[in-house]
Amino acid sequence: MDIEKLKEVACEAIDKAAEDLAKLSHFIWSNPELAHEEFKAHDAVTEILDKYKFPQVDRKFILPTGFRAVCGDKAKGPHVALLTEYDALPEIGHASGHNLIVESGVAIAIALKACFEAAGQPFGKVSLLGTPAEEQRGGKLSFIKAQVFKDVDFAMTAHPSQYYISRPNYVAISEVTMHFTGVEAHAAEFPWEGVNALDAAILCYNNVSCMRQQLPPGWMLHGIVTDGGARPNIIPRTAALEYYIRTPKNRNLKKLEKMLKNCVDGAALATDCDVKMKLHSTFLNLLTNEEMTKTYEENASRLGIQTDTDKESILKKLGGSTDVGNVSYEVPTIHPEFEIGADCNTHSMDFTTAAGDPKAQKYTLDMAKALAMTCIDIMLKPELLAKIKAEFEVESQ
């Protein structure tokens, strides 16, 4: 098969679908839904997949707002998983640009389906996966548990940002909650009868703040009070904190969890409160497959995309965390970041505005084209896939 001709077909298919893709992105951006509540997004995406005649569209897949669309044939070539997410953030909407992530994933799937049709037969299999709740506890973890990636050869996705980075620094993270329990009492008449759970929570928060002054670079803790009592005249019987703890590598998370537990236990002991500390989910650090990344960079450069490849520069941009990291320990994975034409940080209202700006469309579709072309290379070059898998076997241990 003529690889260069198929790349042209892929780009043309994305351009042809541009209006539908922009409408999909704008609809999701205009209707932000929190983790596990992405029902409108689920319906909007699956409807457009029906419109583009994907032979298999599985609704409510694994999770109530999950989906899977499949085309091609694993018997004919490699199987790629295209990862998408579409949950928003509380109060600030799509400040992480997930509307653009799902748009790019759908665009890649449409492009590869068009290539199968142009070639007269599939040369692999495409699974577009709609994975809910990336911002909270990670839908991809449920997909991994259900063995969705068992026969997948490689996976990819891309995240909007304020710059192009091929090898983003996504770090490991654990989500931890602490629930303190004391004894309620009238705060004015009988304060000595109470045991103040809020005092325990505040003391724990201060313990953590003191501890993190001496943490190694890249080790992070950030938390909020989720329960601080009912009224000022009632000594709080309950109080709660929620923390995210992060380290550059998975192996350091357990050590930081133990340090956090000392802060929690110390606060409970000092205030005579009971406490329950619970670990909810862990995202692993991202393993970026170098062979896949080099192939992506070659295709991206053809579209005028200039990525930041300086290692020191990338390390200074302390990454967030993502459940794509867990996928990267299952199959070879890449997760580049891409500009959207705005100089602002994610998880801000400015980025929410930028993610809904029509100006972001060209950047998003160019990224989809670069990744679609990368899929074509990997699916039609057995020696490249062999190198990708060999690297993965070493790096994922």
Structure description:
- The protein is α/β, with parallel strands linked by helices and 397 residues long.
- It is built from 13 helices and 12 strands.
- The chain has helices at residues 3-16, 18-30, 39-51, 98-119, 139-145, 197-211, 253-271, 290-302, 311-316, 324-327, 349-355, 360-380, 382-395; strands spanning 56-59, 67-72, 79-84, 125-130, 154-156, 159-161, 172-181, 220-227, 238-247, 274-283, 333-334, 337-339.
- Helix 2 runs antiparallel to helix 4.
- The longest helix is centred in the first third of the chain and has 22 residues, at 98-119.
- The protein is elongated.
- The chain starts with a helix and ends with a helix.
Structural topology:
Elements: H1 3-16, H2 18-30, H3 39-51, E1 56-59, E2 67-72, E3 79-84, H4 98-119, E4 125-130, H5 139-145, E5 154-156, E6 159-161, E7 172-181, H6 197-211, E8 220-227, E9 238-247, H7 253-271, E10 274-283, H8 290-302, H9 311-316, H10 324-327, E11 333-334, E12 337-339, H11 349-355, H12 360-380, H13 382-395
Helix pairs in contact: 1-4, 1-12, 2-3, 2-4, 4-12, 6-7, 8-12
Please trace the helix and strand order, writing H or E for each element.
HHHEEEHEHEEEHEEHEHHHEEHHH
Oligomer: single chain
Low-confidence stretches: none
Mean pLDDT: 95
User: How large is the radius of gyration?
Assistant: 23 Å
Q: Determine the fraction of residues in helical runs and give it as a percent range.
A: 40-55%
Annotation field: number of helices: 13
**Structural class computed from helices and strand pairing:** alpha/beta
**Rough shape?**
elongated
Q: Give me the side-by-side strand order of the main sheet.
A: 1-2-4-3-5-11
Taking the sheet with the most strands, its summary is: 6 strands, mixed
What is the beta-strand fraction? 15-25%
Terminal Cα span: 35 Å
E-strand count: 12
